[in-house]
Amino acid sequence: MVVATRQKITELELHANSVRQNIIRSLLAAGSGHSAGPLDMADIFTALYFEVLRHDANDPLWEDRDRLLLSCGHIAPVRYAAMAEAGYFPIEELLTLRKFGTRLQGHPERVRLPAVETTSGPLGEGLAQGTGMAVAAKLDRKSWRVYVVTSDAEHQCGLHWEAVMTAGKFRLDNLINIVDRNFIQIDGNTEAVMPLEPLAAKYHSFNWEVFECNGNDIAEFLMTIDRARKVKDRPSVIIAHTVPGKGVSYMEGDYTWHGKPPNKEQADVALRELQAERERIMARA
Amino acid sequence: MWLCASCKPNANGLWRVPKTVMAAETMQLVNYLDSEGIKQVPTRNGFGEGLIEAGKRDRNVIGVCADLSESTRMEGFKKALPEQYIEIGVSEQLLVAMAAGLASAGKIPFIASYAMFNPGRSWEQVRTTMALNETNVKIAGAHAGVSVGPDGATHQAIEDIAIMRVIPHMTVVVPCDSVQTRKATLAVAERWGPTYLRFGREKSAVITTEETPFEIGKAQVFREGNDVAIVACGILVYNALIAAHQLQEEDGIDCTVVNNHTIKPMDDAAILDATKRCRSVVTVEEHQKAAGMGSRVAELLAHEHPAPIEFVGVDDQFGQSGDPMELIDYYGMGTGSIKEAVRRAYARKK
Known about the structure:
The complex is a heterodimer. Chain A is 42% helix and 12% strand.
């Protein structure tokens, strides 16, 4: 049971704010990369690393850890920033993002940074690998869970649905898929590019338990995760509605920020806005 | 004692084994020249037997199949070790990616389908989730080559060696007969690393025995001669041996025949050794001439020891329906075609 007191939520919101600021800093240092998705998933990754996952930053490959897979590898900056925030590596290392020799590759590579669990970037492959891990856990009667973060647009990949069907067949109640439902992809709105709706009904029809929540509300997300973890005999999907570019006014809701980083002036504005938000969170508490 | 028509008693009445068959004796081969007596067994049977054995030796060995358990010969494993078997239906991309997940959690998944789809359909998943991700997944590509026969071009994988050997970290193994396929399956299970194991559907000559050694990455000299080195893999190793024998009888050309079963990591030393001795090379594979095993040999020789080389394989075409051996002959991989290639290579020697 995830107990989320008001004080706990405030702590998590402050961590999420730091994660957002560090996303902006690392993207600025990299000079390329994706902005909108990492920002909109900062609340969920913070909640996962600080409240949901069974893990140990000092022993990243602990055998009984929960597995967190990032299927849409292009939003790696949020995962890296959340991992640094949770103590996996120094915050300063985030400034090596996308640079020669870094562990923080443009798209995550397990061999360079084993704690990311999989190598990802080519879309639609994460849930398939998560399904394999969840089956292995069942075979070995292990209690660890598999959490997969997917983008909405990668639901246009055939392979993803092969995995949805398979997880349904094997009744993988140790598998939770968290969908970043931000409605944007490189070429525009998902419903214009290739409609995904009715997305919840699709999962229902594949024998999944379906939840929806506001992915930018940490308390609501934690309550939803708690319900998903109680589901028996079937996998769960959480369709998390998020605002692309969340936290930076000029990026929010604008699909053109899917695949580009801020320049120096834009980054300064973003960091000022995020710092103001940080002060509001503290004032509320 | 390995006996054949070319073994003759000497003046003292003792049998003398000519040099050309010494290698066969060393390798403990059957008498492959006895066309009546030689057994014909599909290489896929060797995979099926090997997989059951591997699964019993190590319970982490998992069989994953995409709706072709009978024809890939995974059915025996499914019956013998049902708790280690996973059926996922017609989903070849998932086959690889899910197996990568299983391997990440400590399993040793063998994934089976036809080579045309596995790895033919799933190349990017193989590259990303298996090779770049360094997961211990074993691709079992069944029904490779034109010798699938009547199914036709859609089901005849003749580009698979090329697309697998070009990926870093991959191991590519193409055993020569059913007995060797069984040993290769066991060896692949025991050796860590992303691997492609290729085998065929049709019955083919069994030339090796239980006693024949097998080691991944170690090419085998099945016949020793000084004129032309024939470097072959898969079921065509048998054709190469027959061609070599006939060339000796008909032309006096004395060939080495190397069973080059591991295309990656290839036994460069053995290939160079044969090339230096013979000074010309013919490669033989049931695959496109482009980018396959022969091309790998040519890359090696161009760099280390340039020598005349001829390629036996499919010449930039698709296959079609027909009897397996009829197709092997039609697409230029029969014994006659190998002999012609050897004569060309021999003539090019200075």
